[in-house]
Design goal:
- This protein is an alpha/beta fold and 251 residues long.
- It has 8 helices and 7 strands.
- The model has no long low-confidence stretch (mean pLDDT 94).
Length: 251
């Protein structure tokens, strides 16, 4: 795997879970990371676990789309040209169709999908990214590939992201920007544990048994993120990569 030494990378959702694990891993691979999340206190917790470098904390609400130009100007002035963007910020939740409100669906789409669009749009402006090449990663889910009760809102936001990645890859290749999505299976994070709390023992067993290689860890996902950001993945774009312990192929 090629080094990430001195690459400048934005990680959203860096205050916990997969975003936190990715930020920590990237720091130990030599990258300088801009930690993005709503809670400054939680971002500082992540920072304390990282290898000390010139990292940057940006506590923001990514659904405040009018502020994106300010966000990127702040990041660019601190880092210079950007080499990578990883969008892990998002929300889940089991919401059956019969009680799904349009307001809730809009909340899911805003952070899971629309924020990814806006981040990609600003990242790919000529004044921000490294002209020698850059990489963007969106967090999808195996829920975009396999159905499950009460996950229609979450699933559609991830399936839409996957579709966008394929077209965006064609559009951004001329700028030497690669863009991919990753589709994790069930991973033991705070968000995942909250979902488990809502399930019966039988439903939990069904989830565990559906992953032939067992339940994943945030570090498993961070390893894939590190590779896709590196020059070792220079010929990969427009792909949705499953990392799910075999969930998507199990019966």
């Amino acid at each position: 795997m090629s080094s990430l030494e001195n690459k400048n990378i934005i990680v959203t959702g860096a205050s916990s879970g997969l975003g936190r694990a990715a930020a920590i891993k990237l720091s130990y691979e030599g990258a300088r990371v801009c930690l993005v999340g709503r809670s400054e206190a939680k971002l500082k917790e992540t920072y304390s676990l990282m290898k000390e470098r010139e990292h940057f904390l940006l506590p923001v609400d990514l659904c405040n789309f009018k502020e994106y130009e300010n966000f990127f100007n702040n990041i660019f002035s601190s880092f210079g040209p950007l080499d990578g963007l990883v969008h892990f910020a998002g929300i889940s939740g089991l919401v059956p169709l019969k009680v799904m409100k349009l307001k809730k669906l809009q909340e899911i789409l805003n952070i899971n999908l629309l924020a990814f669009f806006e981040l990609t749009k600003y990242f790919s402006k000529n004044k921000y990214f490294n002209k020698l090449g850059a990489s963007i990663i969106g967090a999808s889910s195996v829920s975009s590939l396999r159905g499950a009760p009460a996950l229609s809102g979450y699933s559609c936001s991830k399936a839409a992201l996957d579709g966008a990645v394929r077209s965006l890859a064609c559009e951004l290749a001329v700028k030497k920007i690669r863009i991919n999505s990753i589709a994790p299976g069930f991973v033991r994070t705070a968000m995942g544990d909250e979902v488990l709390k809502t399930l019966s023992p039988e439903a939990k067993d069904k989830i565990f048994n559906a992953h032939p290689l067992g339940i994943g860890t945030p570090e498993d996902i961070a390893n894939l993120v590190t590779f896709l950001l590196s020059d070792g993945a220079r010929w990969i774009t427009g792909s949705t990569i499953c990392i799910d312990g075999g969930f998507s192929i199990s019966s």
